[in-house]
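Obj: model holo form, ligand = adenosine-5'-diphosphate.
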Amino acid sequence: MRKNFLAVFFSAAIIFSSCALGEAPAEKTVFAMDTYMKLTAYGSNGAEAISASEEKISELEKLWSVTDEKSEIYSVNHGGGKPVPVSNDTAELLSLSFEISEMTDGALDCTMYPILKEWGFTTGEYKIPDDEKIAKLLENTGYENIDFDGVNITLPADFQIDLGAVGKGFTGDMVSQIMRENGVTSALLDLGGNIQTVGNKPDGTPWKIGLRNPFGDGLFGVLELSDKAAVTSGGYERYFVGEDGETYWHILDPETGKPARSGIISATAVGKSGGVCDALSTSLFVMGLEKSEEFWKRHGNQIDFEMVLVTEDGGIFITEGLEESFTPNGDFSASEVGVIRK
Ligand code: ADP
Ligand code: MG
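Output (holo structure tokens):
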């Protein structure tokens, strides 16, 4: 079977996949964690790896759902100030989330959930809360008020968390591990715009990942990746336009309780770990260009990550590790790309 060009378009990214005269891959689209996930695996164990992955995804979704009364996060959020024990997977995700919160000075903060609800981002019934309401809700936020000993988590009463900013990326890590354990050496995992690549394309060349133009149709750039994750947070993913004509999106600045207006409209983190990249993409979006640059210079050796940032005025910035793998695309083909160096 010949597939010349297969373009898949989900929330944040577009993937090109071409396989010349090779075997057809095993493919499956799963709806989980509020998004469509498309898993593509090449090789003889692809189908098995995909069904094992599906099971894992559904297991993780059941742990982290904020609305399912049987989920661990639901129990954590309704613990009434008492310690709640969590499973290993949840513990690992919480540790990652808190670690990045510390490193980013709280740009990432899983306690924003009650404020996200107030804005309607959890239901789609959007509204602009008044400042007093936000100020009141901000009194019950701040990840530093949470007690977590690696097994038990204790939230102060009236606190609620959601792991929406990190869960999909972490799931990508789990799924790519399952792929490898099943002997799959070439796979493309699109978890609602969180991209995780296993190995190269079957023809031995890197995967090409398109980054969605935050201002309109098409792409602003293409990344060539192997064995890496690319996770994008964008102001165009979930948003509404208020009666005041302003656009309000689903990533909040934990300092203000309002949509983060840092000057960045799209932030992509690239690295080995999807979980880390997911945590960082949200953080970079909140921090803005200058702080993100400082953060990368300070932590870029310790955490494996590179970034692609697009500013609201259309500027594209990449870190030097992506110089060979990033190409501007479409309307941006002739754009000058700023390279951030150590
Ligand atoms: P997406 O999930 O749309 O790909 P993100 O990874 O950036 O994008 O996660 C956004 C989600 O994270 C929001 O829908 C919300 O649940 C949660 N969230 C919003 N702002 C923050 C924040 N500052 N820190 C942690 N979580 C946040
Ligand atoms: Mg994220």
